[in-house]
């Protein structure tokens, strides 16, 4: 259940990689209806922050929510968040259309959605081309198309303009503005303010993992005073006259000119005239946001010669983003026209339009009712979600696996059986399947433990004995580098299953040689089933309750009733002081199940 707000909250977020403090006590909000730029120089901590937001990396401290929920607790993530962290990993020989069809199948959206999003991002005419031959900019578009498949409410894009040509950047700008104008939320990162300046309304600037500015871009602009440079006949006389007029921020320059802050051209002209000083030239220098960006972020890998100071200080404090009101409804705003280069001939409709709601998958997002079990806690514990690609919805998996995208048999790399939740990546890629993003928590499964807090566990989670490889106070054993959240850890050795993954006969869709060590009878995403013949013998820590239609299966207690949506500054739902009833204690999690997949 989530509050449907489209709001992103990052609160006191901290991430240390050993001695490297990648993110330090970062807090900001991103509101729907606007495009927020997440800016900082290389190594500032942007990607790490986004990875924590998407449940790919466990924070050392603090928390993040989308729609009032940690990512791993979103019931239908791909309908809520579309994310692109890197536009890589496409199967090189798979066509763009087939790439998207694979995701359509797993998400349970109609196949024609693949063509819709191809057209939307201007790749309509390239749908039959193998993604391996795509340029970087085309890969960016394909990654964006993948993120849009679920018609998400929130878009999170890491350096989306990377590789785009000027026309592509202009198109992306129009697209994102229209997307936000339809009442949705857009968060884009960049290390170049100039690249996104015309796209964003709000800006969060970080450096060294810390917030330097958070607020409307206009306020940042206004905070910068213009500087007036004059060339007087007598610089000393003018400086004296200006100081007598209480304009004290006056700097004589080596070339005889005078730089003045805090006065208009007209004021300076009047004072000069009164003092009898001729002016041979007057030049007003408008505040340069790029310059300010350097000021705010200088010091972190700053190159020599980076301009320093001179334009006044940025506004004090960190302004809170302003909530938008009177926003347009989704679908109201056209997204503009993609560049001609990738336009699908003969397809005037379908793009230039906001994503349309479509029956079956485009219906308004279901809002759970307080006091009712969250989706997936019904009598049927079917439809557990496979590991989730970036921007994927936690849609029930198709029985028998995803349909073949235009090929006989199963799509390459896909198992012809329900995917194991949190199981090995499917699409035939060693390590990570293309564009897969985190889906740590399985819909309908026991809530995954929230990210750890330093020294104290997240509220609502009892202190559990530390697991091997687990961060102190953190979530269950972290994965290996290259692991996708929701997926298995990357094997340490080729051919060796990662810890917690038993070597088993190869299963279709699973990386060769290893398979999740799932217990017999265990439901995907659920704790081990009670032993046969022992009805009512629930897993440890779960209350035995008679099964009712529409209630959790036998042996499962009622899920906790949803408390009110968290307020800013408050921890998200489920982070209560007490361990919620029926939530699986951390040490009971099965390997590869639930849990945050990123390397903590
Ligand atoms: N898995 C990791 N292990 C160790 N250090 C890491 C890891 N991931 C990130 N870091 C470090 O954390 C810091 C922040 O990195 P991050 O990638 O978040 O920065 P960024 O702002 O996205 O940079 P860029 O603009 O270059 O992409 C860097 O010092 C980086 O080296």
TrEMBL record:
Boundaries of every ABC transporter domain copy: 8-233
Protein family according to the UniProt entry: Belongs to the ABC transporter superfamily.
The protein's name: ATP-binding cassette domain-containing protein
Record-linked PROSITE patterns: ABC_TRANSPORTER_1, ABC_TRANSPORTER_2
One term of GO molecular function: ATP binding
Keywords: ATP-binding, Nucleotide-binding, Transport
Keyword match Transport: yes
Signal sequence interval, chain numbering: none
Compositional bias segments (type: Low complexity): 316-346, 353-370, 378-398, 406-420, 431-445, 507-524, 572-591
Composition-biased stretches (Pro residues): 421-430, 446-457, 488-497, 525-538, 560-571
């Amino acid at each position: 259940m989530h509050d449907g707000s489209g709001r992103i909250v990052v609160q006191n977020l901290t991430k240390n990689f050993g001695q490297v403090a990648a993110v330090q006590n970062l807090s900001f909000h991103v509101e729907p209806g606007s495009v927020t730029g997440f800016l900082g120089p290389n190594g500032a901590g942007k990607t790490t922050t986004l990875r924590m937001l998407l449940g790919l990396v466990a924070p050392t401290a603090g928390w993040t929510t989308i729609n009032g929920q940690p990512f791993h607790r979103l019931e239908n993530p791909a309908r809520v968040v579309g994310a692109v962290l890197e536009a890589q990993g496409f199967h090189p020989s798979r066509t763009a259309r087939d790439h998207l069809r694979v995701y359509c199948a797993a998400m349970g959206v109609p196949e024609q959605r693949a063509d819709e999003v191809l057209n939307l991002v201007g790749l309509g005419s390239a749908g039959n081309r193998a993604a391996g031959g795509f340029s970087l900019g085309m890969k960016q578009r394909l990654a964006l198309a993948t993120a849009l498949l679920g018609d998400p409410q929130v878009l999170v894009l890491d350096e989306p303009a990377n590789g785009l040509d000027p026309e592509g950047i202009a198109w992306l700008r129009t697209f994102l503005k229209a997307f936000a104008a339809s009442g949705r939320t857009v968060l884009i990162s960049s290390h170049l303010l100039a690249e996104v300046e015309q796209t964003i309304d709000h800006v969060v600037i970080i450096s060294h993992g810390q917030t330097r500015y958070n607020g409307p871009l206009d306020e940042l602009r206004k905070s910068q005073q213009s500087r007036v440079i004059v060339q007087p006949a007598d610089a000393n006389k003018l400086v004296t006259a200006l100081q007598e007029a209480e304009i004290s921020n006056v700097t004589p320059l080596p070339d005889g000119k005078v730089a003045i802050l805090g006065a208009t051209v007209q004021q300076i002209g009047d004072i000069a005239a009164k003092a009898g000083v001729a002016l041979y030239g007057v030049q007003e220098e408008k505040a340069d946001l790029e310059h300010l960006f350097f000021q705010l972020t200088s010091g972190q890998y700053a190159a020599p010669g980076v301009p320093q100071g001179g334009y006044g200080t940025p506004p004090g404090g960190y302004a809170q983003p302003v909530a938008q009101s009177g926003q347009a409804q989704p679908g109201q705003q056209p997204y503009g026209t993609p560049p001609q280069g990738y336009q699908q001939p003969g397809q005037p409709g379908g793009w230039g339009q906001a994503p349309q709601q479509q029956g079956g998958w485009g219906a308004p997002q279901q809002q759970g009712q307080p006091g009712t079990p969250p989706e997936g806690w019904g009598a049927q514990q079917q439809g557990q979600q496979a590991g989730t690609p970036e921007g994927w919805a936690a849609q029930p998996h198709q029985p028998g696996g995803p349909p073949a995208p235009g090929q006989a048999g199963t799509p390459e790399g896909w198992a012809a059986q329900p995917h194991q939740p949190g199981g090995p990546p499917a699409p035939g890629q060693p390590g990570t399947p293309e564009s897969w993003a985190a889906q740590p928590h399985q819909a309908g499964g026991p809530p995954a433990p929230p990210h750890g807090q330093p020294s104290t566990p997240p509220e609502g989670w009892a202190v559990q004995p530390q697991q091997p490889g687990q961060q102190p106070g953190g979530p269950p054993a972290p994965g290996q580098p290259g692991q996708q959240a929701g997926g298995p850890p990357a094997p340490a050795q080729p051919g060796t299953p990662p810890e917690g993954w038993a070597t088993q006969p190869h299963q279709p869709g699973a990386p060769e040689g290893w398979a999740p060590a799932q217990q017999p009878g265990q439901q995907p995403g659920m704790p081990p089933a009670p032993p046969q013949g022992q009805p009512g013998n629930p897993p440890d820590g779960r209350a035995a309750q008679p099964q009712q239609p529409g209630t959790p299966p036998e042996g499962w207690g009622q899920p906790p009733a949803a408390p009110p949506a968290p307020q800013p500054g408050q921890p998200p739902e489920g982070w209560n002081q007490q361990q919620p009833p029926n939530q699986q204690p951390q040490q009971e999690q099965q390997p590869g199940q639930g849990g945050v997949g990123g390397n903590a």
